[in-house]
């Protein structure tokens, strides 16, 4: 059990400090993942940025991810997606368009504060406050792989074992503090799991840029 996102990130940072990283950059998946990423970047002396990917919501069950979409517009569907009631080609197209619009909105918001980091040839640490199905992380990893980083490290406080296995072919290393079999929701592993708003994520990006200036 973690006290909050900062506590989880500090524990994760202790593991990452043992690694030999090449010009590291920490990318958080907004919004909660930006809090985790900000702590990791501070503790590792790394650049902070975001990677934008969004889950595709199930009809009538918005908390259930049937897949995800990355900044490149490519859709990733979970194996069970077509078995969910209401999931049709038309529904997927509509949900894709909705999430692409949200990615563009967030891109305008975050890029006004922090231009996208160049990750080519660098150690890239991708993080979130936890992973449920893993779809959003998979979309992010696909987008990043095309940018030819030195390595991609997935670093998260908590994730179910089956989600972790999805990432192994797509990253160089995985650091995860908890991999419980009885996983129901990320929030069950935090005492304080308040929602993170856009304004908080923007503030963290802005402050990281100020701190990085000589």
Overview of the structural elements:
The chain is an alpha/beta fold and 214 residues long. The protein is built from 6 helices and 8 strands, in the order αβαββββαβαβαβα. A 5-stranded parallel beta sheet has the order 2-1-6-7-8, with helices on both faces. Helix 1 (5-16) crosses helix 2 and helix 2 (32-44) packs parallel to helix 6 (198-212). The radius of gyration is 16 Å and the shape is globular. The mean pLDDT is 93.
Class from helix and strand fractions: alpha/beta
Roughly what percent helix?
25-40%
Rounded Rg: 16 Å
* Total beta strand runs: 8
Task: Give the number of helices.
Answer: 6
How large is the share of residues in beta strands?
15-25%
> What is the CATH topology assignment of the largest domain?
Rossmann fold
Average pLDDT number? 93
Low-confidence stretches: none
CA(first)-CA(last) distance: 38 Å
- Give the topology string: H per helix, E per strand: HEHEEEEHEHEHEH
Strand order of the largest sheet: 2-1-6-7-8
CATH architecture tag of the largest domain:
3-Layer(aba) Sandwich
